[in-house]
Amino acid sequence: MATVYTSSEHCPMCSAAHGWVGLGRIVYASSSKQLVSWLDEMGLPPGRVRTLAIEEVIRDTPVDGPAPEFAEELRALQRRYRGFTD
Ligand SMILES: [Zn+2]
């Protein structure tokens, strides 16, 4: 069974696809909840699709994340992606 490693937690669509095809464990570095918090901090609205934790979308799949040791680096990447230069 495949383990999927990803920088960001799956969106609800990807979680559902992951579950439907029966992939295995998911390991992610930053959560959807963190992303929404970082967007808010940048004064930006959340995306149109609501965030849901992977476990709210699929069951019977081991999920590990977020990884706190990568939080600050990923927050900085999200800011840079959106044009913030600090
Ligand atoms: Zn997705």
Outline the secondary-structure elements.
Blueprint: E1 4-8, H1 12-21, E2 26-30, H2 32-41, H3 54-57, E3 63-64, H4 71-81
Parallel strand pairs: 1-2, 2-3
Helix pairs in contact: 2-4
Q: In brief, what are we looking at here?
A:
With 86 residues, the protein is of the alpha/beta class. The chain is 41% helix and 14% strand. Strands 1-2-3 form a three-stranded parallel β-sheet, with helices on one face.
Terminal CA distance reads: 41 Å
Largest sheet, spatial ordering of strands: 1-2-3
How many helices? The count is 4
**Low-confidence runs:** none
Describe the structure.
It is a single chain. With 86 residues, this protein is of the alpha/beta class. The protein has one domain (4-81). It is built from four helices and three strands. Strands 1-2-3 form a three-stranded parallel sheet, covered by helices on one side. The mean pLDDT is 96. Residues 10-11, 13-14 line the site of zinc ion.
Characteristic key phrases:
single chain, 86 residues, alpha/beta, 3-stranded parallel β-sheet, 4 helices, globular, binds zinc ion
